[in-house]
Amino acid sequence: MSFSIRLARSAEAAQLARLSRDLIEYDLPWRWSAERVLRCLKDRATNGIVAVAGGRILGFALMHYLDAEAHLLLLAVTPAQRRSGVGRALVTWLEDTARVAGVGTIRLEVRAGNEGARAFYRQLGYREGQLLPGYYEGREAALRLSRRLWSPATEAASQVKALLLNWRPST
Ligand SMILES: CC(C)(COP(=O)(O)OP(=O)(O)OC[C@H]1O[C@@H](n2cnc3c(N)ncnc32)[C@H](O)[C@@H]1OP(=O)(O)O)[C@@H](O)C(=O)NCCC(=O)NCCS
Fold first, then answer.
1. Could you report how far apart the first and last alpha carbons of the chain are, in Å?
2. Which of 63, 85, 112, 167 has the fewest CB atoms below 10 angstroms from its CB?
């Protein structure tokens, strides 16, 4: 399936909020209102992106950047478009951007019972961490996940390796 990824527009905030309500926050109080999504889209420390095909939104993601870490706040793909690589493409776009911004780790929370999303994140190299009982309105547990994109130590090691590989004895 052919689709492209671009930054979300302010005019799309209400649509993204509805997608969050229906695909992520189902059976929970709706916390990601249109106003909250719009605030995030206008926030310079947050990236909102959409995957689109033929003018239709197939999926979206919101990520907040801190100094050395980023927090993936929302990610969803419409049911009919799942298992076509849209989710992976959205996360890869955000990871590439995070690397450029010098972010070393991406963190997120997922509903503990969301086996599909857990399998998805495992496949993308995310490690499951702490279980947070009652995280969602006291009703449901969350699981913390993270992926280390790079660390200063591995970065330094790869620079040393590159120096050694390029080293030539002076004549
Ligand atoms: C989780 C979600 C974003 C994945 O999006 P997607 O576009 O279907 O994912 P991809 O097609 O890129 O999947 C990449 C790989 O992840 C794994 N994967 C994805 N969904 C999976 C599932 N339901 N069960 C098992 N593995 C899964 C597979 O290995 C898949 O590769 P494959 O299809 O070649 O086997 C999507 O299912 C979704 O929107 N779920 C509802 C909202 C949600 O749970 N969001 C995450 C928490 S905020």
1. 56
2. 167
pLDDT tens, residue by residue, 36-76? 999 999 999 999 999 999 999 999 999 999 988 999 999 99
Distance from the alpha carbon of residue 124 to the mean position of ligand 1, in angstroms:
10
Count CB neighbours of 69 within 10 A. Answer: 16
CB 109 within 8 A of CB 129: no
Q: Which of 120, 126, 128, 146 to mutate to test the pocket of ligand 1 (most atoms within 8 A of CB)?
A: 120
Active site residues: 109, 121
pTM of this prediction? 0.91
Q: Which residue minimizes the CA distance to atom 9 of ligand 1?
A: 87
Q: What architecture (CATH level 2) is domain 4-166? A: 3-Layer(aba) Sandwich (3.40)
